[in-house]
Amino acid sequence: MLECKTSHMTYTSSIPDFFGKLKNLDYLSLALNSLSGPIPSSIGTLRGLTYLCLDRNKLTGPIPNTLANLPPDSSIYLSHNNLSSLIPKSFGNMKAEILDFSRNRLTGDASFLFGGPSKPQIDLSRNLLEFDLSKVAFARGMRSMDISHNKIYGGIPSGIV
């Protein structure tokens, strides 16, 4: 299981847009709060942000495609929210260390995340994703993958066995 580091303070309301103006920020954890509303797309403009943890809140709406602009080897934790919609295709081109989008209401085909640049740890469990696993191309370097509790069908790709 992927795990996010947390703080001991509890915040409510939405994520303030001013975080996108903190250009030297490299670490942001707002986990285990009662934050609601959308994730500000301005967070994805932070070119030095390598650790983003927004899990275990009440965030809604889509995942901003700007988050795929975070630096290579970033860790992004968005689990345990109410995020919905498709995962932006821009994440297929992102090289990330960890993508944890588990326990949301994400829909559609997320197979594009597994090919392309390396993403060693991906957790998409407990969403509403639907795609044919037998047609997925996997990049080298994957160490951990959880796609359980979705609507994924098909067999294991021949290149894996």
Automatic annotation (TrEMBL):
<keyword id="KW-0732">Signal</keyword>
<dbReference type="InterPro" id="IPR051848">
    <property type="entry name" value="PGIP"/>
</dbReference>
<dbReference type="InterPro" id="IPR032675">
    <property type="entry name" value="LRR_dom_sf"/>
</dbReference>
<protein>
    <submittedName>
        <fullName>Uncharacterized protein</fullName>
    </submittedName>
</protein>
<keyword id="KW-0677">Repeat</keyword>
<dbReference type="Pfam" id="PF00560">
    <property type="entry name" value="LRR_1"/>
</dbReference>
<keyword id="KW-0433">Leucine-rich repeat</keyword>
<dbReference type="GO" id="GO:0005886">
    <property type="term" value="C:plasma membrane"/>
</dbReference>
<keyword id="KW-1003">Cell membrane</keyword>
<keyword id="KW-0472">Membrane</keyword>
<dbReference type="InterPro" id="IPR001611">
    <property type="entry name" value="Leu-rich_rpt"/>
</dbReference>
